[in-house]
Amino acid sequence: MSLSPPPPHFFFVAALLFVSHFAITADASTSSSSSQTLNTHAEYMINPKLPPRALSSSNKFEGSSNLVHLRYHMGPVLSSSPINIYLVWYGLWSRSHKLLIKDFILSLSPSTPAAPSPSVSEWWRTVSLYTDQTGANVSRTVLIAGEYCDLKYSHGTQLTRLSIQQVIATAVKSAPFPVDHRNGVYLVLTAQDVVVQDFCRAVCGFHYFTFPSMVGSTIPYAWIGNSAKQCPEVCAYPFALPGYMAGGGPGALRPPNKNIGVDGMISVIGHELAELSSNPLVNAWYAGEDPTAPTEIGDLCEGLYGTGGGGGYIGQVTRDRVGRTFNLNGRNGRRFLVQWIWSPALQACAGPNALD
After folding, report:
1. I need a surface site. Which of 65, 204, 260, 349 has the fewest CB within 10 A?
2. Which cellular components does GO assign to this protein (predicted)?
3. Which residues, listed in sequence order, are joined to residue 186 by a DSSP beta bridge?
C-alpha cells in the first residue's frame, strides 16, 4: 500500500481566543484615560477590542478547549546550538520584504547591542524554557544558514502540503543547501501569488518534518504563505478585516512596517518556529491525545499580544505616533506585532511586553 503522511499540524486562524489558563490582567494605571487617548507626539498603549473572526463559534480550531493541558511526550526539542534556518523563497520576492523577514528571524538571538525591551529575543527566551528528557533547553541562538530563491516556481503556482517537501528537495539538490540533519530547519515562504492547499480556508502556515525518501533525511520544516492578495483579512488579521466587519470596532490595526502581507506573515513565522522548536517531530510538547492534530505552545495563545487580552481584546500593545501597532522591538530598529506563547514557568500566555 502507498504511504501517505498523517495531516500535519497547521496554524488555524479562526478566532481570537480567550484561554481560561490566561489570568494576566492589565495594571490599573495602564487603563487610565490618558493611556487610551490619541497622542500624535508620543507612543501610547492601547488594548483594542476587535470584532470576532468568521469562525469564532467553531470548536474545530486549535486551542479551542478550555480544558487542554500541555504535556511533554518524551521527544526531542531543538536543543543543538545554533538552530540553522535554511530559507526557501518560493516565487518572486522583493529585496525589502526579504530583509524585513530576515531581520525578524535574526532578532530571535541575543545580540550586541541588544534591541530595546520588549524585544524579539526576550520573546524567544520563553521558547527556550522548553526542555527535552535530558534537561537540554531549546537553543537561544537562531541563525540563517542559507537561502535559496526559486524564481521559476519550479513546482507551479499551486502546491499541496506534500509538494512543499518537493520544493525543499529541489533546494537541497540545487545547492548550497545541505541536508543538515543535526541543526537544520527548512523554512519555505511562498509569494503572494502562490496557492497552497488549505491556505486561507483553514491554514496560514504549518510545520512538520521531511520524509527521507523525498529530501534525504528527517528534518523539521515549516511553511508560511504571504496572504496579501488572497486573504489578508484571515492571515494578516488584525491588519486587515473582512468586509462585513467594516465600521465595527476600531477598524484594522496599522502594520508596524507598512506591509499587511509581510507583517502578517511575521507573527505566523514566530508562531510556527516556536512550535517547531518545542515539538519538531510532533512527539514532544503539545496538548491533546492526537499527535496528528496537536495543540501546541502557540495555539494556546492565538490572538493574544499583550496584558489584558482575551474575549476579543488583543491585549495592551503600543501604537506609535503615526498609528502603527507593535509589541516587540528587533534589530535595525525594526518593530513587530507577534502573538504571545505559552510559558511553562508561568503556566500562562506570556510575552516580554507584559505589564505585570
Report:
1. 65
2. apoplast
3. 86, 221
Say how many domains are in the chain. Answer: 1
Q: Is 44 exposed, middle or buried (0-12, 13-18, 19+ CB in 10 A)?
A: middle
Average confidence (pLDDT) per 10 residues, the chain, 356 residues:
34 34 36 36 80 42 52 96 97 98 98 95 98 98 96 97 96 86 95 96 94 93 97 92 62 92 98 98 92 91 92 91 96 97 93 93
> Among all chains, which residue has been given the C-alpha cell 500593545?
317
> Is 48 within a domain?
yes
Residue 300 near residue 70, CB atoms below 8 Å: yes
244 and 209 in contact (C-beta within 8 Å)?
Answer: no
- How far apart CA 248 and CA 1 sit, in angstroms, is 53
Q: Rounded to whole angstroms, how far apart are CA atoms 191 and 188?
A: 10
**Model confidence, pTM:** 0.85
CA distances from 29 to 32, 68, 264, 276 (A): 6, 33, 30, 37
Q: Calculate the alpha carbon distances from 5 to 8, 165, 203 in Å.
A: 8, 12, 17
* Domain annotation covers residue 273: yes
- Report the C-alpha gap between 89 and 243 in whole angstroms: 30
Closest CA to 186 of 203, 202, 170, 204: 170
**Is 189 contained in some domain?**
yes
